[in-house]
Amino acid sequence: MRRLLPCLFLLLAAGHASAASRYLDLHKYIAPLTQLDGLRYVFADLRIQSANPAVKPDAIALTIRASDGDIAVPVGADGRFSLPVERRLVEENPEVATNQPADSLQLNVSLDVRAEPAQAFDYALLADMAAEYDRVVANQKLTWRLFAPSAKGLAIRFPKGTDATATVMLANGPVKYAADERGELNLPDKSDWRRQNPRVELSAMPEKIALNLGK
Fold first, then answer.
1. Judging by beta carbons within 10 Å of its beta carbon (0-12, 13-18, 19+), is residue 138 exposed, middle or buried?
2. Most CB atoms within 10 A, among 68, 120, 150, 162?
3. Percentage of the chain surpassing pLDDT 90?
C-alpha cells in the first residue's frame, strides 16, 4: 500500500495520492486552520486531478473507510473537494481509497481568502481579510512562511461578460474601476484608503470577493 507523497507547493502543498492513503495524510494540510479560532475569510482549497487527461476530476472517487461505514467525498468538475473534519476520524486515521491507479493523482492544496459576495462594503474589509490571512501564515511552518505571497488588494469577479464597475467613495471624489472582459477587476491596497475607510459600491452583484495574492 502506497501513501500520499507530499511536497511544498505555492501556498500549502502538492503531492501524489495513491490508490490508498490515510486520513491524516490529507488532514495535515488543513490542520493549521482547524487550530485557529474565529476564522471568517480563510479556507483550505483542496483540488485533485489525474495525470491522465482522459480522466475528468468528477470521475475520481474518494472514499474514507471509517470503522462505522464508508464516507464518500464528492469531487467537483473542477477537482475541488471538502474533507470532513471530525475528531473521530483524526483518532482512527482510516484509509482513504480512490478508484484511480496508484500514484496517478495530483493533490494541490492552497489557501482561498474570500468574503461573502456583497454589492457594497467598507474598504476596511480588505484590512480584515489581510489580517486574518497574515494570522494563518504566521501559524505555518517556516518554509511556507518564507514563500507565502502578501496581499495586493481585493480581486473581485463578476459573471463573465458583465459590464461591471467598482466605485471607491473617497472624500475628495469617487474613483471608479471597470471589470475586464473576463468579469474581473482588482481593487488596490492603498494605505491612505485604509485610513479613510471609504465605502465601495459595485454596479452588480459579484460572484466572488477575494484577497488578491497575485504578483
1. exposed
2. 162
3. 63
